[in-house]
Design brief:
The structure is a single chain. Helices cover 38% and strands 9% of the residues. By secondary structure, the protein is α+β, with helices and mostly antiparallel strands. Among the domains are: 222-439, no CATH class; 445-543, no CATH class; 566-753, no CATH class. The strands form 6 sheets. The protein has a 7-stranded mixed sheet with strand order 3-4-7-6-5-10-13, sandwiched between helices. The chain has a two-stranded antiparallel sheet with strand order 1-2. A hairpin with a 2-residue loop joins strand 14 (610-612) and strand 15. The protein starts with 16 loop residues before the first helix and ends in a 5-residue tail after the last helix.
Length: 758
């Protein structure tokens, strides 16, 4: 018998006897259905995602409260129309595990529509007016889900325990995991239909029919053909074109032998390149069709505590200034704020084929901290095909998304909120992009290479060319110090010059628009003869184009448009530090060429190389570990034991014999730099070398905290300049590539954008 659930409404009085008794009854019910094994925890924090023991679940529900809209306990064996008879309930206990897939699917659909029972009674009135002054019937888009519920309730055949919809979902899932072809899937359906299932089966006859049913979810994608040279998309007015209007390349694949256009089995011509675009509006609408998620989409407005501590992006300066500038948008808390992330990867495992495919993801930031960055809440927006990365031509592929974002900002879309049973006009805005440094250049349009590689410093970036090392070095961090600081006139300890410069000014969106106003409409093509040539030397900046994001009406008003990726910066700095202090061949920045650069700059004569015949002998540097110190460092790393989930097994990356560490992943470098390096290096290097490294570790530790305070960020913002200056006094100029320079901007970005884990 399903227990009474009225106690769940007493979430604000969780210590009352009624609430505590309700928890006991819930756990007794779960034990009867599922046994004494670990169960999913329905507290607000775990949200039925993690399995816990009964004792932990009881504690969590008491401390955090139970999810309010979770009134149908399908995770714990409750079934639709469950009998009030205790004996019947016990009789169902044995087949809970057999039907858990069916119950989960049914529960998901019930989550989408908690008013199912009421609407079933009034299904004839579906197209009429609302029966309640406060509650409304779903709009036409939302009603499509009820048709799916009808399919869900329709058995696969008479007497079947499985429904038509759940069977199709399971079979399509197996097809995806098994990488079946469409033809083989159709053959399976036909065999099941003709030979295994009884007459009257509702199973579809082909993959096309099965896909058609699932498309009612509104989560399918559009295929948009693209030029092989990334010049244009064949859509809108060019939808029926056969040749690129810019480079003249054919839209269709040609047979290499006779030059004829390739045709598929269905008689259709095969395009050379296809963009898969997943429309955004239906995916945002689906967030509000789940009563549980819909309530969380208002968390930033209804339940966030504004006490001056940044825990969520809603606490950030960017969010608050955006609300002040766009009051109409901010007046509806359900309007969605988004972030965009993209990068290329090799999709073929263990393949030597050079191929790069670029997915573009959107992250809805309305959700609370414990849900916001879960991959299950990410929205796949498009898949940009290879075989090469799009480069600056990524703007060509982003056109459908930008157009839809413009429409979502200006017009909005009618959306049904299942948590309050009301329709509302939903709008959406893109707050920023998140990318590693090379992709940052593609999205922002500022080239992240060369002497002006730093996009934050813009034209005021300063670097010097190291003739022997043949690379740019980014020093001059003394200009971030107070104007009367004694290090500004210390030539000997730095690069042999005095420093009177000031830090670069933080540019507004309007400043950038003024710089790129002559770059609108440049041709972005892989065809060198058609691509617009942009000379950085003549322009004296690094702009390659005017970013397509400026088509968004609010983009120029944002305080921050593109985020530096802290994790990749940490990895590059960690690799630089480990490679140099351990003198790892191919990784160290302390080479013969870097020592010759010191000689050319006429600084640190004690480190100048000594020529003996045809070879150079390098004097020992204070920042390099001796043979015994390397052994001590490697033994510490090899014998290190950390809690599960803290990091990967770093000992696998340590070679005691060769005295080197290699193969570290981004998260390993994150853990090493923030937590382990200060412990491992203590007592091994001189204080002048250890001190700035430990300060750098503390900088990233404070920056990477789950909660941030403005006063702490201002403190590390002023301290990082001193830390980088101390590093300049010890490490060679070749150590200071652009990645070592970028931390100077990270604290300011955190003040604007909030905690970096978002």
């Amino acid at each position: 018998m399903a227990p009474d659930k009225q106690w769940m409404n007493l979430v604000n009085d969780r210590l009352s006897e009624t609430y505590q008794f309700g928890i006991k009854e819930f756990l007794r019910y779960a034990s009867k259905k599922l046994g004494d094994c670990e169960i999913r925890c329905p507290c607000v924090k775990c949200n039925n995602t993690y399995e816990r023991s009964h004792e932990v679940v009881e504690t969590h529900i008491t401390v955090y409260g139970i999810v309010q809209n979770y009134t149908f306990w399908y995770h714990y064996g409750e079934r639709k129309g469950e009998s009030e008879s205790e004996s019947e309930c016990e009789g169902e206990e044995d087949d809970v595990l057999e039907t858990i897939g069916e119950e989960e699917i049914h529960g998901i659909m019930r989550d989408f529509f908690p008013t199912l029972d009421a609407l079933n009674k009034n299904r004839a009135d579906f197209g009429g007016s609302s029966h309640n002054a406060q509650k409304e019937d779903p709009n036409d888009e939302a009603k499509k889900f009820y048709w799916l519920l009808t399919d869900l309730e329709q058995p696969l055949y008479e007497g079947s325990k499985s429904s038509k919809l759940s069977t199709i979902i399971k079979l399509l899932h197996i097809k995806s995991l098994g990488r079946w072809s469409n033809e083989s899937f159709t053959m399976l359906l036909q065999i099941l239909q003709d030979e295994l299932l009884p007459d009257g089966s509702t199973l579809p006859n082909s993959y096309y029919e099965a896909k058609k049913i699932i498309q009612d979810l509104g989560l399918s994608y559009k295929k948009i053909d693209a030029c092989v040279n990334n010049c244009m998309l064949y859509w809108k007015k060019d939808e029926k074109s056969d040749f690129c209007s810019i480079c003249g390349a054919s839209r269709w694949k040609n047979d290499n032998c006779n030059g004829e256009i390739k045709v598929g089995r269905n008689g259709k011509r095969k395009p050379v390149k296809i963009l898969r675009y997943f429309p955004l509006k239906p995916r945002l609408q689906r967030l509000f069709m789940s009563s549980k998620i819909a309530s969380f989409m208002r968390w930033h407005h209804d339940k966030r505590v504004d006490d001056g501590v940044m825990r969520h992006l809603a606490d950030s300066l960017q969010w608050k200034s955006f609300d002040e500038m766009h009051e109409n948008f901010a007046s509806e808390p359900r309007n969605v704020r988004l972030g965009l992330a993209s990068d290329g990867f090799q999709p073929f495992a263990h393949s030597k084929t050079s191929y790069s495919i670029w997915p573009v993801f959107l992250i809805p930031y309305n959700l609370p901290p414990w849900m916001c960055m879960k991959d299950s809440n990410f929205i796949l927006s498009m898949i940009i095909p290879g075989p090469e990365g799009p480069g600056d031509a990524i703007d060509v592929y982003l056109q459908p998304l930008i157009e839809e974002l413009q429409e979502l900002w200006e017009v909005g879309v009618e959306t049904f909120d299942a948590s309050v049973h009301q329709n509302f006009k939903m709008h959406a805005a893109l707050l920023w992009t998140i990318n590693d440094f090379p992709a940052y250049g593609n999205l922002s349009s500022w080239s992240t290479k060369g002497k002006l590689a730093c996009p934050c410093c813009n034209k005021d970036a300063f670097s010097m060319r190291l003739n022997n090392s043949r690379k740019q070095c980014f020093m001059r961090h003394r200009r971030y110090l107070p104007i009367n600081h004694k290090w500004r006139i210390d030539k000997k300890s730095f690069d042999g010059t005095t420093e009177y410069g000031l830090p670069p000014k933080h540019l507004t969106g309007q400043d950038i628009l003024d710089q790129v106003k002559d770059l609108e409409g440049v041709i972005l093509s892989k065809d060198a003869s058609k691509k617009t040539k942009v000379s950085h030397d003549n322009r004296r900046d690094n702009w390659n184009k005017k970013s397509i994001f400026f088509k968004l009406p609010y983009w120029s008003s944002l305080l921050l448009r593109h985020n530096l990726d802290v994790m990749h910066i940490e990895k590059n700095i960690c690799d630089n530090v480990l490679g140099t202090i351990m003198n790892i061949k191919g990784k160290t920045k302390d080479t013969v060429k870097s020592r010759l650069d010191l000689e050319a700059m006429n600084i640190r004569p004690e480190l100048h190389p000594i020529q003996k015949g045809d070879k150079f002998v390098l004097p020992t540097a204070t920042y390099t570990l001796t043979h015994e110190e390397k052994h001590t460092f490697c033994m510490f790393s090899k014998q290190l034991k950390v809690p599960d989930g803290f990091s990967s097994n770093i000992s696998y990356c340590v070679s005691i014999k060769e005295h080197k560490i290699s193969g570290l992943k981004s998260h390993d470098c994150h853990v090493l730099l923030q937590h382990l390096l200060p412990l491992a290096l203590r007592g091994l290097l001189p204080k002048s070398v250890c001190e700035p490294l430990f300060e750098l570790s503390l900088f990233f530790k404070i920056l990477g905290a789950k909660t941030l305070r403005v006063e702490e960020l201002e403190q590390i913002e002023s301290q990082i300049a001193t830390t980088l200056c101390k590093l300049e006094m010890n490490f060679p100029p070749s150590f200071f590539d652009v990645m070592v320079h970028l931390p100077i901007h990270l604290a300011l970005e955190a003040k604007i954008a909030g905690p970096i884990q978002y």
